[in-house]
């Protein structure tokens, strides 16, 4: 496994440990529930032997959770054992010795052990007897004030370790852990690593053994000076302790010291604080003393870090305040600019709308002008032709009258000038010319005009007419002649006749009357 891989794995384990510490009260509730269940089993036991067995289970649960309760249970076991047999008394007294040793009451603990006749113990109790000596002397060695005392206790530790190795089954975890310590003391680190790695592979799924085997493996890596692996297995051990709601442990305290040395003060403070709380709760005086040696150093470093962070926070706060003021000013400036821009956009939009309206008007005007130009072109040409024709007719009329006057045909002249048919024929010809020119400009006028009238009310020219009188009136209006008197003069009608024609047609309209004239002007576009 690469160093990067190990670092990632350890980081992941540390995050799990962080979460577990926040959940330790939940784990404690589960442990208490299990212990209450065992207590009930002891109370309901059918006989003394069974009750003693259940109390022993309860004692083993409490000895790593709360020593006061474990002490009380040990007393109960002694009282009950005295009514059963000497072997049970020895087992109960060893329980009491174990509790006193962990509580730091070493003399009383050793006095109890020395009073137990070891030659009467079976193999399992003898192994426990040696184990208690080994554990108590290990505590005394760690707490020794002088090297002479430490050497003395270390010799006793080796002596009882050798005794344990003799009586323990080589296949058990306890034997292998002792063997690992022996190998470490003799400098055989690789052999110890191989042994403990095999144990870890075999027992890491057992929740009750995981903390112990992981811690022993961390000791091997400590000797090998592999701090990353040491930290990894210390984390696994501490995580197992927290999840089992163990209150007396070593791994978390050692892990806190390592993290402190690496500069991870937040975790170091959290872990050492948790370890102190648990050791205090458990009444494990020796663990409390161990933690007390490190706690002030870590707390001081943590407090210094917090103070530095507060100072940095204050600086950042000032900086943020200044930046906030600058930001507020910038926002206000941008807001004012946006308002100006918005006003300019509104003005521009209004101007664009006006220009658009003007464009539409210009387009309409262009259409009207184009139409007007076409009308002018058509009618100017036609007017010139008519004028020329009328001049020719007048000249012929003049010549005819002059000739008749020369030959004294006065009656013929009077008859010729008195005839109304002359004017009627000329008007008819004039209207035909007007109608032809108009329909040449607006060939679909009649159909589009009739589309404005109700069904069955359409107007169609009669006989040989191109436009009827009504159509001719509205043709003139289409050309822009809207004054009824002018229309009447043009058509040789009375103004009332023109008005009647217009009213009659508008009454036939299929659209509102006030929209009729606008619709008329759109014909032909």
TrEMBL record:
Coiled coil, from the record: 334-368
Translocase is among the record's keywords: no
Signal peptide (from-to): none
One protein family per Pfam: DUF6377
TM spans (from-to): 313-335
InterPro entries reported in the protein's UniProt record: DUF6377, TPR-like_helical_dom_sf
Top-level lineage group: Bacteria
Protein name per Swiss-Prot or TrEMBL: DUF6377 domain-containing protein
